[in-house]
Amino acid sequence: MTVPDSAAPTPEPSPEAPVTGTVASSTEPEPLMPPRRRRSTARRVLIAVIVVGVVLVLLLIAAVVAEGLARSRAAGEVEDRMRTALGLSADAEIDTRIAADRPLLLQLAGGALDRVDVDVPRYGAQGLVGDLALTAEGVPLSETGSITRLDLEYRVAEADLDAIAGSLTGLDTDSVTLEAPEIRVGTSLTVLGLEIPLVVGLEPGVDDGALTFDPTTLRFGADEISVADLRANPLFSGLASAVLQQQEVCVASGLPAALTVREARVDGDELVITADGDDVVLADLGTPGSCPSIAR
């Protein structure tokens, strides 16, 4: 029997024959962004970066200006308080500096300044004239608050010691020089009607707020004698009693009572006096000190 043509099997495609159809490939690339759109996006990003940069610069400038204004105002207030405390006139020279270890705005937020340095050139205290330097730590913003720590250094040049020459010894003074650790005072001593020139070596010290001058050596020409040996000799001890007495100057009365005078020493060509105090009430700085050692 003959098989109809319609029942004949469909021939398989040859392996080499290309596959045709409408199935989309999964690896087909997405359409590229048009060049104009890419340029527009890049421009917007650039503009945004520039705006942010300008804003940051403006904020930085504003912070610097605010810091400068706050520092200037705070220094002025501290300076006014120090003028009052030290009894300075409005035109007296004074230099006030606020430490810049931390931003001032942070210090103000904490209610106190970390450190303030104050320099007063040619400051007078009980006949002395010298350069005064104050260092205050933990300075409160309120006048009723207390300074955590206050250190003072007072430097008197050799030439300015002539103002207290009469308080150095019991005799008339011809000259005053500094030769560490002594203050050397040129004077004279009358012995048996003869006037003998001599140089008295004095070591400075402090006693209850007073600046003391203790005789340590006597120099007759090229010969130097220890005051301890001179005091041990009854004859010369009696003759030189005026020279051998310790003299005092109440330097504390020219400084705030809240400070304790600690030391006096010769440093090069300067007499250096130091004082300090803890928890110093700001309102008490205007109260001068006293010298119990001189009063008694």
Note the main attributes of this structure.
12 strands; six-stranded antiparallel β-sheet; single chain; alpha+beta; 296 residues
What's this entry about, in short?
The protein is an alpha+beta fold. The protein contains 6 helices and 12 strands.
Give, in spatial order, the strands making up the sheet with the most strands. 1-2-3-4-12-11
What oligomeric arrangement do these chains adopt? single chain
Head-to-tail CA distance between termini: 158 Å
Number of helices: 6
- Succession of helices and strands: HEHEEEEEEEEHHHEEEH
Mean pLDDT: 79
Q: How many β-strands, per DSSP?
A: 12
Rg from Cα: 43 Å
- Helix fraction? 25-40%
Strand residues, percent? 35-45%
Spans of at least 5 consecutive residues whose pLDDT stays below 50 are 17-24
Which structural class do you get from the secondary structure elements? alpha+beta
Backbone shape: elongated
- Largest sheet at a glance? 6 strands, antiparallel
Walk me through this protein's architecture.
- The protein has helices at about 35-85, 105-110, 225-230, 235-240, 240-245, 290-295; strands at about 95-100, 110-125, 130-140, 145-155, 175-180, 180-190, 195-205, 210-220, 225, 245-250, 260-265, 270-280.
- With about 300 residues, the protein is α+β, with helices and mostly antiparallel strands.
- Mean pLDDT is about 80; it is low at about 15-25.
- The longest helix has about 50 residues, at about 35-85.
- It has a domain at about 160-250.
- The N and C termini lie far apart (about 160 Å).
- The chain contains six helices and twelve strands.
- A six-stranded antiparallel sheet has the order 1-2-3-4-12-11. Strands 5, 6, 7, 8, 9 and 10 form a six-stranded antiparallel sheet that branches.
- Helices cover about 25% and strands about 35% of the residues.
